[in-house]
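Continuing the series of single-chain predictions for the mutant panel. This is the parent chain; the variants come on the following pages.
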Amino acid sequence: GTLFALNAAGAGVLVVMLAFARLRTLAALGGIALSVGSLVSIVISMTDGGLFAYTEPTWRTPIVIAVVAEILAVVVLAALARRRPVG
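Parent structure:
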């Protein structure tokens, strides 16, 4: 739905920002925020109230893959944010 489209658009903007050295740290921090927000959204959707009237019924394979991918993204982006520019 709408939240999925906004998440994809935000990720697209961050990918473009990562391509530019001057914006790399800012983009990495933005990517961390986006990934953590996605993880929080997944956790909230697993509760009884759900997220915007949507409740995830179980930890299905696609949900587990999404959680693992978001955690890996946080780790990689944190390393990128800490990296010093060359030159």
